[in-house]
Write a structure and sequence with these properties.
heterodimer; A: 320 residues; alpha/beta; 8-stranded mixed sheet; two-stranded antiparallel ribbon; 15 helices; B: 446 residues; alpha+beta; 5-stranded mixed sheet; 15 strands
Chain lengths: 320, 446
């Protein structure tokens, strides 16, 4: 079912994306004892709004932050940066990462791309897996829109979805993948799987002993289907330390390689207040429960909201 | 007289390290696979033949490869390893000089493949094999074997089993092997490489599975049409007259519109352009674009992206595999072999018409493209012999042509494409259409 337009209107505000950021930062907070996260650098793509930078600075108290921004927008980004401890580096991510000495230090690196696997994501990830040392946290977001695959045209050739995926991702495409894995519900899982596989093989291919320890695999859609995978590059010692932190035991959204779906609905303030007044409770309200009150949400959305309502953002207008 | 015993421990350590060093994990697995194919050939007396369609001489034979982080296994129904073969080659080190002449035309050559493969992978090995008249097991505990002075392996008789074949299970995998097996990309790589390098065996009916996934052969083809015909020549080497050679070359794919490096860097099919060299049907060099084949050798042009779309394949066949131009790993060509040098001359001749064509088509692009489109892919084993490669020739025109090449910001080009009404058009077409637009609107004489 395609979403009606009122569900898309909030696109810029992106409640699911907003929830995802909060979840990841919350989980990282729990690593502070073992890994002194507040001493880390943050390397991200803050755009003009720096939403993740603000969160990371406030919650994790990270002081040294770098935002990578396309050359044409870098000046404007620099003007908009909310804190003095943010440096804006101008250029394409791939180029900037290649020349970045900070990768030798400990950092949370979150490459929040809005492009798919055909964008710079795979090459960026390779650079990080080749260079970032143990204890580095690497999070990668890409678009997982299967409909973009069919259109892939290289030279004079047009490719089927599977073919076109193979053109982009080569051996990352698991053996036995068929066009059936490249449809709406399955593709985000496949994309995450390939990204994890890419991190692992990139580390191995660069002759390193460290492993990529998966923590996050999230899927959400605020209009475009997006997949975020993340984890820590660890040596044996840090792996034990990370396992001891027991993140999956504390947060049910730290699922390792299993995909966690964020699917909170777009709610009016009135609806949110009504729903919140029923929470917390053990089982999610059903769509029947809600229909009695007077509005409609799918069971899926209600389950997601039930799980994540504490992170749900409220946006409002204010006059300046 | 019994040979004098020497303390062989350190020598064996050195031996194991040395023979496993120059070979990759994929190569090791392919070594074991070669043994399966040799078995099938031995069992049915399959003769080296030309690859024609309908040749299903490997029908009914299979090999099944499975692996995970704990275990590797390969199982076949290819007739088992005859005892004398085991004693003389398979479980003895090096081939005995007094060993009888092997069955003719086998791929397995050096008797070392199996041992190297198993030492490379793990430390506990179980081999069980059954032929129609004998069955035995060879259990190998590498640590124990290293302590021992004896180089040969113990062979234990066992009950016969069917289908006659061999099963090898390797445990206590080496750490690096475990790691590679844990990568999903390794499985994809193995499937991709076997589909390509064993394509001709798979096409002849051999069935191969990797972790239960059936490997489908890569379908090598060249385009044929009214104005296009691949070259296909067969001959025997002038000196080693029992080595039969065939060469096929031509247009596998339509040449790229954008032949700049950046335009073709994302083309994965590029792996399948260039020269392939195969020995007894086993591909040993794939999609080569270097001096190992023809490119940049003496005065021959070096590879250029403009040649993408070209494919040539040369197959050497001989009942005596030691005459073929390959190295011990069988994944590599012995490019210094005189036999091979003689063949390279013919490969160059086979390549030249295509290279000239890619230049000539530039001045007659529309015409050329139209003709290219009408040529359709034809499987290699369907090709008819042809002494020459047929490519279109163009009548000289009165006007001469010149090329224009320039850089513009990607964003702007994207906008122009949208404005021209096709966001997926090639950069080249953007250039042509915008140029034509200028000519149309600004020049009086066109």
């Amino acid at each position: 079912m395609t979403k009606p337009s009122f569900a898309k209107i909030n696109y810029l505000l992106r409640p699911n994306k907003n929830v995802e950021r909060k979840l990841i930062v919350e989980a990282l907070t729990a690593l502070n004892d073992s890994f002194r996260i507040s001493q880390y650098d943050y390397i991200g793509m803050g755009s003009m709004w720096f939403v993740d930078f603000i969160l990371v600075h406030k919650i994790l108290n990270i002081q040294n932050m770098i935002s990578i921004e396309k050359e044409v927008y870098a000046k404007r980004a620099d003007f908009n940066k909310p804190y003095d401890c943010i440096t804006v580096l101008a250029g394409d991510t791939t180029e900037v990462l290649r020349n970045m000495s900070e990768l030798q230090r400990q950092a949370i690196i979150w490459l929040d791309h809005d492009t798919g696997l055909n964008g710079p994501a795979l090459e960026d990830a390779r650079i990080i897996c080749e260079r970032a040392g143990s204890k580095n946290i690497f999070i990668l977001t890409v678009k997982a829109d299967h409909t973009e695959l069919r259109r892939e045209t290289i030279g004079h050739k047009r490719f089927s979805r599977l073919n076109s995926l193979k053109q982009i991702a080569g051996d990352l495409v698991p053996v036995g993948t068929t066009d059936r894995n490249i449809q709406k519900d399955e593709f985000p899982k496949l994309v995450a799987k390939m990204l994890f596989s890419h991190m692992k093989s990139s580390l191995k291919k660069s002759g390193r002993r460290e492993q990529f320890y998966p923590l996050f695999n999230m899927f959400y859609s605020d209009g475009s289907p997006m997949v975020t995978v993340g984890g820590m590059i660890v040596n044996e010692e840090d792996k034990i330390l990370l396992q001891r932190s027991n993140l999956p035991g504390i947060f049910d959204y730290v699922t390792g390689e299993t995909q966690f779906r964020i699917n909170v609905p777009h709610l009016t303030v009135k609806e949110k207040i009504e729903l919140d007044s029923m929470l917390p409770r053990e089982n999610a309200p059903t769509s029947n429960d809600i229909e009695e009150i007077g509005f409609f949400l799918s069971d899926d959305e209600l389950k997601s909201y039930h799980k994540l309502y504490r992170y749900y953002p409220v946006f409002g207008e204010f006059s300046l | 007289m019994k040979p004098k015993k020497v303390h062989s421990g350190p020598v064996k350590d050195f031996f194991i390290d040395t023979i496993t060093k120059d070979v990759s994990l994929v190569d090791c697995i392919l070594d074991l696979l070669d043994n399966c194919l040799d078995g099938a050939m031995r069992m049915n007396g399959i003769k080296l033949t030309e690859n024609r369609t309908g040749d299903k001489s490997y029908n009914g034979f299979h090999a099944r490869i499975s692996f995970d982080v704990n275990l590797f296994s390969i199982e076949d129904n290819c007739g088992g390893i005859p005892l004398n073969y085991a004693i003389d080659y398979a479980f003895h080190f090096g081939r005995r000089a007094d060993a009888p002449k092997d069955f003719e035309g086998l791929i397995g050559l050096y008797g070392i493949g199996m041992k190297r493969a198993i030492f490379k992978m793990g430390r506990t090995i179980a081999i069980a094999t059954s032929t129609d008249n004998i069955a035995y097991r060879v259990p190998i505990d590498v640590s124990e074997w290293q302590k021992n002075d004896d180089w040969d392996f113990d062979i234990e008789p066992s009950e016969k089993f069917t289908p006659y074949g061999t099963k090898i299970i390797i445990k206590d995998l080496r750490p690096q092997v475990k790691e590679e097996f844990s990568l999903e990309t390794f499985e994809s790589e193995l499937v991709r490489i076997t589909a390509r390098d064993y394509s001709f065996f798979l096409q002849k009916g051999f069935e191969l599975t990797v972790n239960s996934n059936q490997v489908t052969p890569y379908n090598f083809s060249l385009r044929e049409g009214k104005q296009f015909k691949p070259i296909y020549i067969k001959y025997a080497d002038s000196i080693e007259t029992d080595v039969n050679i065939d060469i096929k070359a031509g247009m596998a794919d339509i040449p790229p519109d954008d032949d700049s490096a950046e335009g073709t860097q994302n083309l994965r099919e590029v792996d399948y352009y260039g020269w392939f060299v195969s020995c007894n049907d086993r591909i040993v060099l794939a999609g080569d674009k270097t001096y190992l084949t023809v490119w940049g050798d003496d005065s021959f042009p070096i590879w250029h992206p403009q040649y993408n779309g070209f494919m040539g394949i040369i197959n050497f066949q001989c009942t005596d595999p030691s005459k073929l131009p390959w190295t011990t790993t069988k994944r590599n060509l012995d490019e210094s072999s005189e036999l091979y040098r003689r063949a390279v001359t013919k490969m160059k001749d086979a390549t030249r018409p295509y290279l000239s064509y890619t230049n000539a088509r530039k001045a007659n692009l529309d015409e050329a493209k139209e003709m290219e489109e009408t040529a359709s892919p034809k499987a290699l084993n369907l090709l008819e012999p042809s002494e020459k490669m047929l490519v279109p020739t163009f009548t000289k025109k009165d006007i001469s042509f010149t090329g224009i090449h320039y850089q513009k910001p990607t964003e702007t080009v994207k906008k122009v494409k949208e404005s021209l009404g096709d966001q997926y058009m090639t950069n080249k077409d953007v250039g042509i259409q915008t140029f034509d637009y200028y000519v149309e609107n600004e020049l009086e004489e066109k």
